[in-house]
What does this fold into?
Amino acid sequence: MGKMSSRKSKPSGKAKRPQAVRPVSFAKLAEELAEIGRSFYSRGWVLGTSGNFSAVVSREPLRLAITSTGLDKGKLASAHFLEMDADLRIIRGKGRPSAEALLHLAIVRGREAGAVLHTHSVWSTVLSGAHAAKGAVTLEGYEMLKGLEGVRTHEHRESLPILENSQDMAELSQVVSKTLSGQPAIHGFLLRGHGLYTWGASLQEAKRHIEIMEFLMEALVRSYALAKIS
It folds into this structure.
């Protein structure tokens, strides 16, 4: 994955801010999000009706393209996306936004993200429970870490905070905002027994972050299993 650096990544204490998102065609974003959702389903990361995805259509006023609730992600189509404003009002499309829409808004605001993606893989579910007492999962020593924005070496240490799951989305969105403010270098977080949230300046960056995080979590769980066998 490119030339290896011998120097460790040193957190700057402040996350790199993505550039302002220019208005994008809702139809184009919906098509791209649907394709990503189907791909994630094929990998086992959003089975049943789990997972939700969003991307910023415009920043001023804030508009998101976001999944409607209760959908089979294996059959996800552009028609299943809604255009939503900052007050959860539907501007375009039919249906209701994901129950976790407030979390997407908290991340978009807290990270000035261009896209937010959420998966429910076996690996995130297992790790978020097993490491809950520690408050985070630590990922380090893997070459794949260099796929995360701003990371230049496998020696980087990435922390995935574990937040307690809740059905009170207003309260949980406040916890998410506080976490993002207090830990500006993170690229994602886990909800205990629930799944992974990550984001990016663009939809493609967010997709890459999901792929990297899911790979690393699977590698970690499998390494634990092998250690027990040996």
Notes: Residues 203-229 form the longest helix (27 residues). Residues 1-20 have pLDDT under 50 and may be disordered. The chain has one domain: 26-229. The helical segments are 26-42, 101-111, 122-130, 169-182, 203-229.
